[in-house]
């Protein structure tokens, strides 16, 4: 609810601090048990920061994270501990998120040992988890570098599953992997969701990756959600010009359709969150921008059965 993260401005060479940077600005969404929200946007849009606030790797500047009616965003680390296992994170680069000096047994057991499980018990559970994610349990005493990128991400997923979470925030879990391996990991995550009743916040920088896994999709731009709604409706008929542009970059499987369709090429890079443009922050890049867009910020409101932050939603 209204998650906001403001980072202090960077210090310049002269020692003066720049203006504070609002990396995330009033992000709200609901996520039901067993469902997946795809969180999409270009790098720097605040999607990872949002994910990190949800798992409490970052304390939000303001706003709340409510789990089963309880606001967990202000709990002390001590009070948070019993809930820690309920929300876990899977990281983008599997190899750098695994300690190279620990065996897989150690990596996966760690959260269980923290919970007070015995070493033998934790090791048995780690072997079961390896099997669950499609790894060979006999490889339990190997080190991360002995695994491929895809296998390493399976280890990261097994570690996240160790405490029996209900929600996993997956921050670009397949972006660092070979294209041929991406589908395998996405399929694995889908199977685990169905078998274990997990909910995911699935973060990605493009709309093609989240298409298979999401029930709903939220598109972020410069720290805010600009469109959020049911996946099918959003893909079939995107309402925000930014969503339309992102979707037009997703390759279509049918080559004839691919040749026919229009490509919306966005001008320039996203502006710096340190100096967001006035009005609609997308206006300098928007092909539909009008005068009002330069001065008045559009708020999320209902359009075509979803929420859109645009003065001129639709075609
Ligand atoms: Fe484009 Fe205006 Fe809509 Fe912003 S409010 S996305 S500038 S049309
Ligand atoms: Mg990121």
UniProtKB/TrEMBL annotation:
Q: Where is the ABC transporter domain?
A: 1-247
Q: Name one GO molecular function term.
A: ATP binding
Q: Which domain of life is it from?
A: Bacteria
Fetch the InterPro entries from UniProt. AAA+_ATPase, ABC_transp_ATP-bind, ABC_transporter-like_ATP-bd, ABC_transporter-like_CS, Oligopep_ABC_C, P-loop_NTPase
Q: Which UniProt keywords apply?
A: ATP-binding, Nucleotide-binding, Transport
Please give the PROSITE patterns that the UniProt record associates with this protein.
Answer: ABC_TRANSPORTER_1, ABC_TRANSPORTER_2
**Which Pfam families does its entry note?**
ABC_tran, oligo_HPY
Q: Which Gene3D superfamilies match?
A: P-loop containing nucleotide triphosphate hydrolases
Record-linked PANTHER family: D,D-DIPEPTIDE TRANSPORT ATP-BINDING PROTEIN DDPF-RELATED, TRANSPORT ATP-BINDING PROTEIN
| Family label | Belongs to the ABC transporter superfamily.
Q: What is this protein called?
A: ATP-binding cassette domain-containing protein
